[in-house]
Amino acid sequence: MTDPALSELLDLALEAARRAGALLRDGRPADLGVAATKSSPIDVVTEMDIAAEKLIIGYLSDFRPDDGFLGEEGAGSPGSTGIRWVIDPLDGTVNYLYGLPTWAVSIAAERDGERVVGVVEAPMRRETYQAVLGGGAFANGEALRCRRPAPPLDQALVSTGFNYVGHVRAHQADVAQQLIPRLRDIRRGGSAAVDLCDVAAGRLDGYYERGLHPWDLAAGDLIAREAGALTGGRPGLPADGDLTVAATPGVFEPLQAALDELGAWHD
Ligand code: IPD
């Protein structure tokens, strides 16, 4: 039975994500432009990223004013309850800017530093992914299971993403070029949160990326693991900004080893 404290966090995350997803879907201005840039001129923020983060933090704070927050668009406070919300109000901002459908709201809750709840709301796909630690992963009420049996690595469909900083991208392109002949194919969906949920749903055999932030991966990592996928970073390390790897067991180990051999975590 799910811990009632976690059920409360899950319900709040689901409702905050639903409201932010509706705002982003229904409120996207026709003349949407770039409001600011971050790590490079192509790392953009729109007015809608900012509005969605404000909505999510406002909603969660109404119910849990003493919790901590870490949000992509600047929200940050340690809180005093041991619960911290890790929020990407709009993961896949470039897709959203261009009107492509693959983007999502990602909300995770950590308890004493451990991820315990993850919600990824993908409005244009009409999909809500959710997981509670130890309770399995679900999409629109259906249990998720990563792909089984796992194919050999050279038959695996693997997604990746590219960082916004020039020298990191150049190295990522080099790694991808060397990896492609060892896989069935590579995809670049444009939202790390959705990529991780696609691994959970068995639509991808694996996913990897260097340079993610905690808000990109917090919810999706828990959803993937609760669906039976393995996640990690460099061999023996957890998924982090150096390297995030998620895959069905059987693909995870050779993919992680190949990425390690190719030096995917550095340039
Ligand atoms: C980005 C997306 C993208 C990934 C980038 C992320 P954002 O998040 O997840 O797929 O390749 O590394 O920064 O900026 O759209 O929230």
Automatic annotation (TrEMBL):
Mg(2+) 1 binds at E72, D88, D91, D216. The lineage of its organism: Bacteria, Bacillati, Actinomycetota, Actinomycetes, Kitasatosporales. Gene3D superfamilies: 3.40.190.80, Fructose-1,6-Bisphosphatase, subunit A, domain 1 (3.30.540.10). InterPro entries: IMPase (IPR033942), Inositol_monoP_metal-BS (IPR020583), Inositol_monophosphatase-like (IPR000760), Inositol_monophosphatase_CS (IPR020550). Belongs to the inositol monophosphatase superfamily. Pathway: Amino-acid biosynthesis; L-histidine biosynthesis; L-histidine from 5-phospho-alpha-D-ribose 1-diphosphate: step 8/9. Its cofactor is Mg(2+). Mg(2+) 2 binds at L90. One of its GO terms (molecular function) is histidinol-phosphatase activity. Its EC number is 3.1.3.25. It is an enzyme of class 3 (hydrolase). Catalyzes the dephosphorylation of histidinol-phosphate to histidinol, the direct precursor of histidine. Keywords: Hydrolase, Magnesium, Metal-binding. GO terms for biological process: inositol metabolic process; phosphatidylinositol phosphate biosynthetic process; signal transduction. This is Inositol-1-monophosphatase. It catalyses: L-histidinol phosphate + H2O = L-histidinol + phosphate; a myo-inositol phosphate + H2O = myo-inositol + phosphate.
